[in-house]
UniProtKB/TrEMBL annotation:
Pathway(s) annotated for this protein in UniProt: Metabolic intermediate biosynthesis; acetyl-CoA biosynthesis; acetyl-CoA from acetate: step 1/2
Catalytic residues (positions): 148
Enzyme Commission (EC) number: 2.7.2.1
Cofactors demanded by this protein: Mg(2+); Mn(2+)
Family annotation (SUPFAM superfamilies): Actin-like ATPase domain (SSF53067)
Recorded GO MF terms: acetate kinase activity; ATP binding; magnesium ion binding
Protein name: Acetate kinase
Lineage: Bacteria, Pseudomonadati, Pseudomonadota, Alphaproteobacteria, Rhodobacterales
């Protein structure tokens, strides 16, 4: 039996994104995208192929991942010959200093990923659970891991260092950066810019960050040690005075778990607005708290653009990507307005149309909208890593 099918997983807190690709000599060819969605009942698995979407119910207990996957893949077998699986690729958020590129999953690699779970408690355990479950379901199919931190391994030591005792840096307390698979894809889509163009990419979704890219490499990122850092997100706080943590756990007597839950799940747009984490709903709301949450979000994005421009010594282009960046012109317009002093000039019609270039011809900073594709990077790395072993 020919094995020519690639499967990718991109695990979130409430969804598991799937990608199916054909293994071809030039590059993996996309066949279909899917998602196992736990957000609404009944849970379901959806598959989009050739412009058509199909769905199947998931009745298994969502807490039993193996049972969920068994049911989902029994349904997916009606659309793909899964005996043709050649390799399975996974997105893993944190690779620390251990992984600066993709890795074939072995018992040792699983142990190393597990050891890094303390650095990404919101994401790493879910990825590990999925890897282990898929090893059980498809023990003969090789699996690979693609790491969000790997793209940022090119950040200079000065960028990665905190102003903390030097020994802590050697113990791994440093800036790592995240959303690296998205930024690696964006870096490959900048062929119409000069090779050494100074680009800031803004990955704006429920999790959000920005990255300074020059010569196809990451120079700096808004996220640092954890996925909490940088700009406010849907439910995450973004950068925070560490004195606030000391006060919460000291004077106010909150536990570590209470503070962790607040910072990851109760802050950001949800925390500031007091009622909503989805920027689309906030844009539609007339409540002043909604406007304040959005204003803070866009202010911090613009401020981070300026900081990252400083790391590169200038800026030639700003790229908007991911769910909010690609689909919400109102957010793009607010950010661009705050960057007018840098010479960013928005073309309102192009912005509303979601064109690739949304800046005017006179703008000193090109404003671009480029859809990201993390799954294609996972597929490419899965093939390259499997071919190397």
């Amino acid at each position: 039996m020919t094995r020519d099918l690639i499967l990718t997983f991109n695990t979130g807190s409430s969804t598991i994104k799937l990608g199916f690709y054909a293994l071809e000599a030039a590059a993996p060819r996309p066949l279909a995208s899917g998602v196992i969605d736990f957000r609404d009942e009944p849970f379901e698995v959806r598959l989009t192929r050739e412009g058509k979407t199909f769905s199947g119910p998931i009745t298994a207990d969502p807490g039993d991942l193996t049972a969920v996957l068994n049911q989902a893949f029994a349904w997916l077998a009606g659309h793909f010959n899964l005996s043709r699986l050649a390799v399975i690729g996974h997105r893993v958020v944190h690779g620390g200093d251990v992984f600066t590129g993709p890795a074939r999953i072995t018992d040792q690699v699983i142990a190393q990923i597990d050891a890094l779970a303390r650095l990404a408690p919101l994401h790493q355990p879910q990825s590990l659970a999925l890897i282990r479950a898929m090893r059980g379901l498809y023990p003969d199919v090789p699996q690979t891991a693609s790491f969000d931190t790997a793209f940022h391994a090119t950040n200079p030591p000065l960028i990665r260092r905190f102003a903390l005792p030097r020994a802590l840096y050697d113990q791994g307390i440093k800036r790592y950066g995240f959303h690296g698979l998205s930024y690696r894809y964006i870096a490959g889509q900048l062929g119409d810019l000069a090779t050494d163009a100074k680009v800031v990419a803004a990955h704006l979704g429920s999790g959000a960050s920005l990255c300074a890219i020059r010569g196809g490499k990451s120079i700096d990122s808004s996220m640092g040690f954890s996925t909490l850092d940088g700009i406010p997100m849907a439910t995450r706080s973004g950068a925070l005075d560490p004195g606030v943590i000391l006060h919460l756990m000291g004077e106010m007597g909150q536990s570590l778990k209470q503070v962790e839950t607040m910072l990851y799940r109760e802050s950001g747009l949800l925390g500031v607005s007091g009622f909503e984490a989805d920027s689309r709903e906030l844009m539609a709301s007339t409540r002043p708290e909604a406007a304040e949450a959005l204003d803070l979000f866009c202010l911090r994005i613009a401020g981070e653009v300026a900081r990252l421009a400083t790391s590169m010594g200038g800026i030639d282009a700003l790229v908007f990507t991911a769910g909010i960046g690609e689909h919400q012109p109102g957010i793009r317009a607010r950010v661009a307005a705050r960057l007018a002093w840098l010479g960013a000039e928005l073309d309102p019609d192009a912005n509303e149309a979601g064109s690739r270039r949304i800046s005017t011809a006179a703008s000193r900073v090109q404003l671009l909208v480029i859809p990201t594709d993390e799954e294609s990077i996972i597929a490419q790395e899965a093939v390259s890593e499997e071919a190397a072993t």
